[in-house]
Amino acid sequence: MMDKLIVFVTCEPKEQAEQIAQTVVTEKLAACVNVLPGVRSCYVWERQLTWSDEVLLLIKTTRGRFAQLENRIKGLHSYSLPEIAGVTIDEAYEKYIDWIDASVGG
Q1: 3-class SS string, the chain
Q2: What is the CATH number of domain 4-104?
Q3: Does the global pTM surpass 0.90?
Q4: Could you tell me the residue ranges of all domains in the chain?
Q5: Contact 10, 65 (CB under 8 A)
Q6: Over the stretch 48-93, which tens digit does the pLDDT of each residue have?
């Protein structure tokens, strides 16, 4: 099994998403973060149906960096319960995977 992950994080506002992206890349917790504006989320929060305009972060990292990444995001995020969900990359271009390792320290 490959140890590379894409971690999904939703934020509002855009400035917070960009701050998280810049911080985790600068601190080598992630190789790359895609910042995707225009996400409309529907969910139940505190027994209320809620709609939010959010920004989705797609964070590329390794399983070995996940705990540090999670803690850093929790420290920067305004939500009391932020979405921080990692999925394994099953297949990818080998040189891209090598670049992720080099970017986060393996």
Answers
A1: CCCEEEEEEEECCHHHHHHHHHHHHHCCCCCEEEEEEEEEEEEEECCEEEEEEEEEEEEEEEHHHHHHHHHHHHHHCCCCCCCCEEEECCCCCHHHHHHHHHHHCC
A2: 3.30.70.120
A3: yes
A4: 4-104
A5: no
A6: 999 999 999 999 999 999 999 999 999 999 999 999 999 999 999 9
Q: Which of 11, 38, 37, 43 is nearest to 24 (CA)?
A: 11
Q: At what angle do helices 14-26 and 66-76 cross, to 10 degrees?
A: 140
Q: What are phi and psi of 5, to 5 degrees?
A: -130, 155
Distance CA(19)–CA(63), nearest Å, equals: 22
